[in-house]
């Protein structure tokens, strides 16, 4: 019955293949790839989209499930056709012929992780750390996460590689289910869960997700803390002190149980690191909500403080 409801929901998003003009591949991974394309919309003009699909030779039950999950979640977020400014925009799906595609907005600045790498190289030349710009991205993602929490949607893979930057420098949460398949990344480790091999982003996962396979809005907040760590470190890959670069589940769990957390990045202001650490509280109920994260981050941004005069003063980062 659920699958029927999903199909009915997706039918309104179905587009004609004749309206799609495929260009070139912009991302490829073990199970899927993304192609830049032009989509002719009902208004008669063409928009750039990222067309995501599963590789024909890697079409397994788990990849098809994740692909359909992403379609369903994006359709739920866009039930009013507007979506949310900090979640990647859905333009349509192609399910009535093979290969099937999810069509989302094309982000000219690629993913947040790569954008942070660019800022890091610019900082070496100019000395400008662009901290306020980076905190703006952090606020954007927290706003998007708040919308997901409102809809009771759990992303399960909040990370800089799964956030895109628009041409207007707005950060948007993306990749609701196929993220591990699209991009080749050392962030994912192979594990066996329920007798099925799965790629999991271990260093971004909450302790309860690692231990029990439980994913909640609170576990997304833990992952958001790692994303904020990535933002303040210019996109470095997380590494726990005393652990290998790619530890297994048991190693990470043991470290977290001992209270080991990612260390404060160089030049990361202490108020920001305190927000990061608050996301990694062992008890999920004691972690900040996405709305609280938005407020805390915006308190550190003077331009937002000017827009919200009710905020207390003298907390922002100069």
TrEMBL record:
Quote the PANTHER family the UniProt record gives.
RET ONCOGENE, ISOFORM A (PTHR24416:SF617), TYROSINE-PROTEIN KINASE RECEPTOR (PTHR24416)
| MF (Gene Ontology) | ATP binding; metal ion binding; transmembrane receptor protein tyrosine kinase activity
Q: Which residues are noted in the entry as ATP-binding?
A: 52, 161
Q: What is its main location?
A: membrane
Q: Which InterPro entries does the record associate with it? A: Kinase-like_dom_sf, Prot_kinase_dom, Protein_kinase_ATP_BS, RTK, Ser-Thr/Tyr_kinase_cat_dom, Tyr_kinase_AS, Tyr_kinase_cat_dom
Q: Which CDD domains is this protein grouped with?
A: PTKc
- Catalysed transformations (reactions): L-tyrosyl-[protein] + ATP = O-phospho-L-tyrosyl-[protein] + ADP + H(+)
By what name is this protein known? Fibroblast growth factor receptor 3-like
Catalytic site: 157 (proton acceptor)
Report the source organism: Branchiostoma belcheri (Amphioxus)
- GO biological process, alphabetically ordered: cell surface receptor protein tyrosine kinase signaling pathway
Q: Does the keyword Ribonucleoprotein apply?
A: no
Q: Where in the cell is it found?
A: Membrane
This protein's encoding gene: LOC109468228
Q: Write down the membrane topology.
A: Single-pass type I membrane protein
Per UniProt, the keywords (alphabetical) are: ATP-binding, Kinase, Magnesium, Metal-binding, Nucleotide-binding, Transferase, Tyrosine-protein kinase
Which Gene Ontology terms of cellular component type are present?
A: plasma membrane; receptor complex
Where along this sequence does the record place binding of Mg(2+)? 162, 175
